[in-house]
Amino acid sequence: MELIKRAEEFETRKMRFPTTSDRILAAREAKELILSLNEIYKKTKDAKLMDIMKRLTAIKQRIEKRLKGKPLTA
Prior knowledge:
The protein is an all-alpha fold.
């Protein structure tokens, strides 16, 4: 499947995003992949798809954490 190959390629891609816009694009791509895989998972209940979605979600959360920045302490 093309979607699984795209997801695996996204996982193996170097996760170094120098600009904020690069991080935003990466987070959006991860979200799009997760939602697409989820639609297939709903029909097939394939455990492999669930594992891929979990890994992509972890990557997406790391990117979003970096986007939000360090919390200000008062």
